[in-house]
Design goal:
single chain, alpha+beta, 7-stranded antiparallel beta sheet, 6-stranded antiparallel beta sheet, globular
Length: 400
Amino acid sequence: MCDTVVKVGPDGVLFAKNSDRDANEAQVLHWVPARTHRADSVVVCTYLTIPQVPRTHAVLLSRPFWMWGAEMGTNEHGVTIGNEAVFTDQPYADTGLTGMDLLRLALERASTAAEAVDVIVNLLEEHGQGGGCGFEKRGFTYHNSFIVADPTTAFVLETAGRLWAVEEVSSGVRSISNGLTIPGFAEEHRDQLRSRVSGCDVRSARTASLAAEAGEAADLAAVLRSHGSATWPRYDLLTGTLGMPCMHGGGLIAGSVTVAGWISELRPGGSRHWATATACPCLSLFKPVAVDTPVHLGLPPVGTFDDGALWWRQERLNRMVMSDPARLAVHLEERNEVERGWFADPPPTVDAFAEADRLLDRWTAALPVGAGHGDTRPWWMRRYWEKRSRAAGMPSVPGR
């Protein structure tokens, strides 16, 4: 489950997305340079192998570690895309291009948002969409919707099987979540029950309302960190935290975790981007990133704990804080101050990540031992996280 929001104004476009997936499904920032390809080249996607194009653009992706495609990303021309799982009345194919594949292919092949929409539509009609997209349950599949933006405009593209509809966003705010929204197409093809369970309408209304007040990229951080009407998550027995943009898992029948966040400021004179590269935007830093500035972030994360991987080092702090409300304010004031500077005047990406590493180590070491009254979350949330931390091999922290 995810949320993507865009705000189109006279001076450019603001874009933000949270990627919500399974709790241990680490996400990685992936830089891919521009390339030329031989006439007989192919590209191996998550499940399908398809013909390659003569030239692909440089891209920066935030992708689940095990997938070829990406949840969100941008290219050298400022084309920026986020995708959403949607549930429809059309059959789900056992194989095909995933929504994440379609997103990456569009970024690699398009120089404007309109071109990216055409790329996705043409690939969808030729190859179809399908294949398992879950980490814990690999067979979990869905159809996809997208917000496709560039420095001058944005589009909402929604699909149901090989069917599709598109809507241009020439001004104002548009938000999408896990349900079809384009008039006519949504009424005809939306799976009402699964869309309702996903909490999509509640979240998209929340992100649209918050984004309407956003004047600059920094304001979008509050959109992605929102826990709805509460400061800290409220937990539902059946759906966990699906009702809020910043998700913290749980629920007996459904649950997702925000495993990465992304913010873009797209201007005709140049675009800027910030990514968490870690889970829980409410606890993480948005770091400045650029398509033409690849950075070594340590070991690439996988689905189990590794102290050499940035995503998992942050995740250790996240899970410690989530388990004890008394730890909440230990680092947030300093986090906010550092981040304000990075939004106003972004330092080089390598410097920002180095500073983020130093801060993460210090914040983790400074967490109070035995603070508060222990884990006050409902039993089903504690069980959810205990199970996933065991599966990930998360190290125990004595006295914490």
